[in-house]
């Protein structure tokens, strides 16, 4: 699907997009990541098929982290809509892609990680759940490692 940059910024700025919210605990996610993330993937596939701008949000309650699957014209979370207009010309028409996003104080210094999962057309052609699971495992490992490092620094003071 192709989208005009100005139209996308307007939709996002007005919160005119579909949001599906999911919650889990870290232990449940570790045991059943495929099933949990498959729900987000299927939700996004249904949204793209329906022509929706969509955000699938997974709150990991006991980790203070949120994972998003969003379709967008650029690799920025929806909440940065105004910045899209600064980066892309209003008249530009761009292909939509699906992005994996995680926000956590401990994922990295910027507290945000975003990576492209697939162009939206390709996203509909095959199951990207395994790719999403692998990506999230890497992010959760980074969070765990960064928390451990932070604790060690605090303990050594």
Please give a structural write-up.
By secondary structure, this protein is α+β, with helices and mostly antiparallel strands. The chain has one domain. Helix content is 46%, strand content 28%. The strands form two sheets. Strands 2-3-4-6-7 form a five-stranded mixed β-sheet. Strand 6 and strand 7 form a beta hairpin. Helix 1 packs antiparallel against helix 3 and helix 2 crosses helix 5. The radius of gyration is 16 Å and the shape is globular. The N and C termini lie far apart (53 Å).
Give a short summary of the structure.
This protein has 157 residues and is α+β, with helices and mostly antiparallel strands. The chain has five helices and seven strands. The longest helix is centred in the C-terminal third of the chain and has 27 residues, at 129-155.
Task: Output the keywords.
single chain; 157 residues; alpha+beta; 5-stranded mixed beta sheet; two-stranded antiparallel ribbon; 5 helices; 7 strands; 46% helix; globular
Choose one word for the global shape. Answer: globular
- Beta-strand share of residues: 25-35%
Low-confidence spans: none
How many DSSP helices? Answer: 5
Set down the secondary structure blueprint.
Layout: E1 2-4, H1 5-13, E2 18-24, H2 26-49, E3 54-60, E4 65-72, H3 81-87, E5 93-95, E6 97-104, E7 112-119, H4 120-125, H5 129-155
Parallel strand pairs: 2-3
Antiparallel strand pairs: 1-5, 3-4, 4-6, 6-7
Helix pairs in contact: 1-3, 2-5
């Amino acid at each position: 699907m192709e989208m005009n940059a100005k139209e996308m910024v307007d939709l996002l700025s007005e919160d005119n997009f579909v949001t599906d919210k999911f919650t889990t605990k870290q232990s449940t996610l570790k045991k059943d990541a495929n099933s949990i993330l498959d729900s987000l993937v299927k939700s996004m596939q249904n949204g793209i098929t329906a022509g929706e701008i969509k955000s699938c949000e997974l709150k990991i309650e006991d980790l203070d982290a949120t994972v998003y699957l969003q379709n967008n014209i650029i690799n920025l979370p929806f909440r940065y809509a105004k910045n899209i207009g600064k980066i892309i010309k209003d008249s530009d028409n761009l292909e939509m892609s699906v992005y994996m996003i995680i926000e956590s104080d401990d994922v990295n210094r910027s507290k945000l990680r975003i990576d492209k999962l697939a162009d939206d057309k390709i996203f509909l052609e095959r199951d990207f759940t395994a790719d999403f699971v692998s990506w999230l495992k890497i992010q959760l490992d980074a969070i765990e490692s960064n928390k451990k490092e932070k604790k060690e620094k605090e303990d050594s003071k």
